[in-house]
Amino acid sequence: MKRKRGPVETFSVSVDANTKRILKAHAERVFDGNMSALISAFGREAEKRDATQWLIADSGGSTLTDELREELASEFHGRKKKRKTRAA
């Protein structure tokens, strides 16, 4: 694992036992057990999400309606949306 460049900071985090188990298992799979690398990755992901939210807000917000969100979710999960039948 590469060493971090520059100064680092230490902080304490309290989580329940199950969350700790999940985080440690993920760090083991993805970061050779390095919890600091896992937390750093979470920080970078949070920064990306914040930037995405800012971009959406700056451009006027989302144009997705609840109906379109449901339609997209149905397609994503493989559920067919029932089509409305026309009256003759």
Notes on the structure:
The chain is built from three helices and no strands. The protein has 88 residues and is mainly α. It has a domain of 60 residues. It is elongated and about 70 Å long. The protein starts with 16 loop residues before the first helix and ends in a 12-residue tail after the last helix.
Helix and strand arrangement:
Blueprint: H1 17-31, H2 35-58, H3 66-76
Which features characterize this protein?
single chain, mainly alpha, elongated
Kindly, what is the distance between the CA atoms of the first and last residues, rounded to a whole number of angstroms?
Answer: 69 Å
Kindly name the structural category.
mainly alpha
How many DSSP helices?
A: 3
- Compute the average pLDDT: 89
* Main β-sheet description: none
Radius of gyration over C-alpha positions, nearest whole angstrom: 21 Å
In percent, how helical is the residue content? 55-70%
Strand content: under 5%
Broad shape: elongated
Low-confidence stretches: none
Order of helices and strands: HHH
Number of strands: 0
Summary, kept brief:
This protein is an all-alpha fold and 88 residues long. 57% of the residues lie in helices and 0% in strands.
